[in-house]
Amino acid sequence: MSEKNYVIESRNVHLYYGKNEALKGISLDFEPKGITALIGPSGCGKSTYLRTLNRMNDLIPNVTINGTVLLKGEDIYGPKMDTVKLRKQVGMVFQQPNPFPFSIYDNVAYGLKIAGMKDKAKMDAIVEESLKKAAVWEDVKDKLNKSALSLSGGQQQRVCIARVLAVEPKVILLDEPTSALDPVSSGKIENMLLELKEYYTMIMVTHNMQQASRISDKTAFFLQGDLIEFGDTRQIFTNPHEKETDDYISGRFG
Ligand code: ADP
After folding, report:
1. What is the total count of domains within the chain?
2. Which residues contact residue 220 at a Cβ distance below 8 angstroms, ignoring those fewer than 6 apart?
3. Residue whose CA is at the smallest distance from ligand 1 atom 15
4. What is the CATH number of the domain that holds 72?
């Protein structure tokens, strides 16, 4: 749609839950690498929008979606799109860590096994590298065969991020990835995301405006299903152009 090298382009995305219009025509593009924060009061459509980017809303009954979402120029709602492949390319991390009830190793190797990888040495190397990138290798390297459920919440979340990284995503969607965690675990995840953003395009819903201003490069402010303002994080937080953005970031509502 444009000359710029966007990883994701979304145009005029409308989403209805039954008759309730939760997204009222969102157009937003994402450049390679870095973190974009999606902020706004509860119920404004942040998570819904995030889920349109890898078709997670398809799993919810009575949802209607209009508009266009392109991943590297390819229409993700097009008839040829394989949603399993799409969700590998556009991986997702949820608010509650959701490891499978398997070993730590098998959690991270899951996508590789599904894809039919047989080379054990290669798989070992990818599991190690992914756990290192997710800053949890030192915590788990001596207990890879233990259940992922035996880990702390913060460690589980980092293993979930390693699971996403193992399949080499183009984009990582994060839906309030630290809101269920204590401040120390949240800080570790923020530091890890700061390192990962050199290599990955990440889009993160957060309720925490300090977090958005600490780690994101771009910020999009949503209100009642509309995108009110999008820009460099520093500009949004220090010199918002729209009154609603100013009111929200200065705590006048939400
Ligand atoms: P946010 O992430 O900003 O808190 P959501 O995207 O979760 O907002 O919700 C946007 C709107 O869509 C809200 O009015 C919410 O009640 C509605 N909504 C979200 N998920 C569903 C669902 N599964 N079924 C019906 N309505 C939903």
Report:
1. 1
2. 28, 36, 37, 38, 39, 227, 229, 230
3. 43
4. 3.40.50.300
Give the tens place of pLDDT for each residue, 141-164: 999 999 999 999 999 999 999 999
Q: What is the chain's mean pLDDT, rounded?
A: 96
User: What is the CB-side half-sphere exposure of residue 181 using CA atoms within 13 A?
Assistant: 24
How far apart (Å, rounded) are the C-alpha atoms in residues 101 and 156? 11
User: Which residue segment(s) compose the domain that 162 sits in?
Assistant: 8-249
State percent of the chain over pLDDT 70: 99
How far apart CA 113 and CA 166 sit, in angstroms, is 11
Q: Write the residue with the smallest CA distance to atom 26 of ligand 1.
A: 17
C-alpha 79 to ligand 1 mean position (Å): 26
How would you class 147 by CB atoms within 10 Å of its CB: exposed for 0-12, middle for 13-18, buried for 19 or more? middle
pTM value is 0.96
Band (2; pLDDT cuts 50, 70, 90): low
CA of 127 from ligand 1 middle (Å) equals 35
How many other C-beta atoms can be found within 10 angstroms of the C-beta atom of residue 196?
18
Q: Does some domain include residue 124? A: yes
Give percent of the chain above pLDDT 90. Answer: 96
Give me the pLDDT at residue 1, please. 52
What is the Å distance from ligand 1's center to 17 Cα?
8
Whether residue 2 lies inside any domain: the answer is no
